[in-house]
Amino acid sequence: PADTRDATQERVRSAPAPVTDVARLCVCDLLVAQCDVNCCCDPDCSAEDFSLFTACSVPLVIGDSQLCSQKAAVYSLDVEANPPERIFKLIDRVNPSIFCIHATNYKEALYLKSPEIPTPENFDQLLDKFGGATFSAEPDSWNLDTDAENPPEANETSRYEYGVPVQTEDAFLRLPSPVVTSWCSDANPAGFLVNQATKCIRSVSVEKCASIQALSMLFYINSSILAVPKSSQMVNITVQSIVVQSLNGMRTLLSSSDVLRLPMVLDELCINAVLGVNYHITHTDTGEIIGAAAAFVLGAISKEALSIEQSFEISFTQENTQPVPLSGNPGYVVGLPVRAGFQPQGYPFPAAFLSNKHSQLTILQSTSTQDCLAAQGARAPVLFGYNMISGCKLRITAAMKCQPLAQTLLDVLKGQSFPEYVASFGNSQAQDVLDWVPITQLHISEQMISHTWQCPCQIPVSLGIEVKWTKYGSLVNPQARIVNVTATITTTTLKQLPSGRERIIPITSSVVFTDISSPAEPSYKAWPTINIKLPFDFFYPFV
User: Which stretches make up the Tectonic-1-3 domain (predicted)?
Assistant: First the structure.
């Protein structure tokens, strides 16, 4: 009947709306109270942070994908703006599937029911309900079909966040460490994205080494890691390598790591005892663990030893990224190498950068002989914040050819493969195009020097690199950021010289760092000057 159909439609229209606010959801927000790089929905990021982003790692955020009509938060970057800025839009999406939820009318599934507060009146009732070894956490008002699948927990997270303990099927990933004393404690959990390295002392007994769990490889790999917290998806810990250490400290890498080596007693020695474990965790940009590996150092323990020192380390790497040594996080640290790289050939637009062999900007390294022709290939890394100068001497004779000499000197100054780009931050990733600063190359010609060649010959005599950097971020903890790099090649023209004459020309390389940060404006007025003369014995008996 028409009245029944109208009443049904009215109940659907009055159904409670979903409480999920997609504008508040952010699956790439991994760091607590810190801005995640390229996470456009991170509430901890400011407009200055967005101006440094290269792309939005999560451009679309939706709530319940099973709803027929759903809100969606769209994030993008306007790279044409100066500086680049983030664009946020909230749109309505229509689910094309015919099997979708039109309205969510189960009210108790949308809200967290406040727990009942114990009072003198209901204490006995709560004790009977929750005082046993097990109890049901489901509210009495839930009337669920026992054959139906249980709904997921409301507080279940779908990703790891920074510092959250890495969960395993039985507890958490152990990273033994000293707590109060130097003795090992196995109760230390490994935090997600927290690189750690610990050393501690373990009490051992050769007679009982086979029964000491902490000396066995199984103790560190027998529990699978949960891909995301509170999930059923497991990631097994594989054995990456096994190194055997002898009693005198010599280490040997085993060719095969497929066979587990368990501790055992042999000739009054405890062999295959774990001396060190190095975990390597691979994760996605959304906080999901997809791989785990462990490298072991096994050794022998003599009968006289009452304790051994164990070392443990854990590191995290995001998938599809090449692990390279960093020079800061995020800003450069004074004394660490300036990172450099090349743009791939054949790309219609800058898509990524390939690092050179050492991922560093280098200059000519001075040698004891000061001979330029012998110094070819000797390079020294450019260290951030350190002004450097190096050089050599070139003896020019009449037998030297112009073009080979010029090319040799250019290789001495620039190296075999001079980079095209420099990382603006110490932790810039190769795929973040806007985080790389192009090196501007200039050429300057000097006066002429006499030589035997009939035609003028130009040879490079110096390379000057100027690195301009600025302090980025808050005044409390400013981060060093490179904004411009200029490499200037100075050439000299050689001309005719009387026969039999020789000339020695100095060849130099230099690096200069220039701070172009604008001075900070104080947020307070200058304190007034008080002109007071203290008594001569005011600080007596101190000078």
Answer: 158-318, 328-515
